Amino acid sequence: MAEVLSQREIDELLNAFISGEVSIDDIQEQAQEKKISVYDFRRPKKFAKDQLRTLQIIHENMARLLGSYFSGVLRVYSHIELISVEPQTYGEFINSLPNPVIMGIIGFKPLKGSIILEVSTNVMYAIIDRMLGGIGSSPEKVTSFTEIEIALIERILKQILQVMNNSWSNVVDADFRLEQIETNAQFAQLASPNETIAIITLEVHIGDVEGIMNICIPYLVIEPIITQLSSKYWFSENYAGDNKEKYSNIIAAQIENTQLEVKVVLGETEISVRDLLDLQVGDVITLRKKVDEDISVYVGDMEKFHGVVGVKDRNLAVQITSLCERGN
Q: What does the alpha-carbon distance between residue 287 and residue 97 come to, in Å, rounded to a whole number?
């Protein structure tokens, strides 16, 4: 933006013209001079569009895998969606983070250097609450973390890194390792403030809790494999087929380990509020189900099977006799 001159500076400039100290030719020559900066095309310092597109594909797969993983482990609906992949400077990223923050410093083996995995505090507390048997709630405000919370956060971050390893495996045989956890972003000096980084932002839903997960990848860290992020490499025909099959197997394995609630309904009926208030010990409630009629078996909230009640190893049990037509 051009600098605005004061009246005094304008008067001094006019006097210089009149006295001959400054000529119009001198000013025109200075205006035509261009600032030239050195740029090495063999070692670019920013991400190309196709490289950002490849990072987007990698982390779209990661989002799907991680959502399936948390749904199975936490036994609550979990959804993770990629929001954006954008280049930034490291200083812009660090200055945008709250305090305190949950930030994992991640070693990116076999490459040199580290990346950052940052998770919203409300999302992390929701995961911790579910792990400990809660409903998945999170506090309104967080000022610090206890040693027990840090230990649980470390465990969760390591689980996320296992999914990241799978997501990156077709680009590089990645081995992401948690090096340390930082709760103050200003202490994480992984790069200079002006260094170019890629910021991968994911929106995370754990039950009713919503938050953000950020992955910060400095350009200098992945520079040795930057050619492998080209669209030509990523979309090769053989690779695409292998990639689809591999991720299908991973997702299938995650689904197979998902814990589901199975419940049996012996029967149902309707009574008035008056009758409900009059109920006493020993009263008999007649159900709309005959003694020799099959009972309903539910998976989650969906009726899937019919069965009969019995005993096995001194425990109540249900033997499946048929599938529900709508449960096929």
A: 59
d(CA 134, CA 159): 20
Q: What are 143-200's pLDDT values in tens digits?
A: 888 999 999 999 999 999 999 998 898 888 889 999 999 999 888 888 888 899 999 9
299 vs 205: which has the higher pLDDT: 205
Cα–Cα distance for residue pair 252/243, rounded to 1 Å: 14
The tens digit of pLDDT for each residue in 227-279 reads: 888 766 655 544 445 555 655 666 666 666 667 788 888 888 888 888 888 88
Alpha-carbon distance 13 to 105, whole Å?
56
Q: How far apart are the first and last CA of the chain?
A: 68
List all residues 6 or more positions away from 318 whose beta carbon is below 8 Å from its beta carbon.
264, 295, 297, 307, 308, 309, 310
* CA angle 287–308–72, rounded 5-degree value: 100
DSSP string, 183-208: SSGGG---S-TT-EEEEEEEEEEETT
**Rounded Cα gap, residues 108 and 89, in angstroms:** 19
What is the distance between the alpha carbons of residues 255 and 272, in angstroms, rounded to a whole number? Answer: 43
The two structure tokens encoding residue 110: 């076999």
Tokens representing residue 84 in the block: 């954006």
Cα-based distances in Å from 134 to 56, 128, 167, 236:
34, 8, 30, 46
Can you tell me the distance from the alpha carbon of 35 to that of 16, in angstroms, rounded to the nearest whole number? 26
Residue-range domains of the chain with CATH: 49-256 (3.40.1550.10), 262-327 (2.30.330.10)
Between the alpha carbon of residue 317 and those of residues 249, 287, 305, 311, the distances in Å are: 33, 20, 14, 5
Distance between CA 61 and CA 243 in Å, rounded?
10
Q: How far apart are CA 305 and CA 322, in angstroms?
A: 6
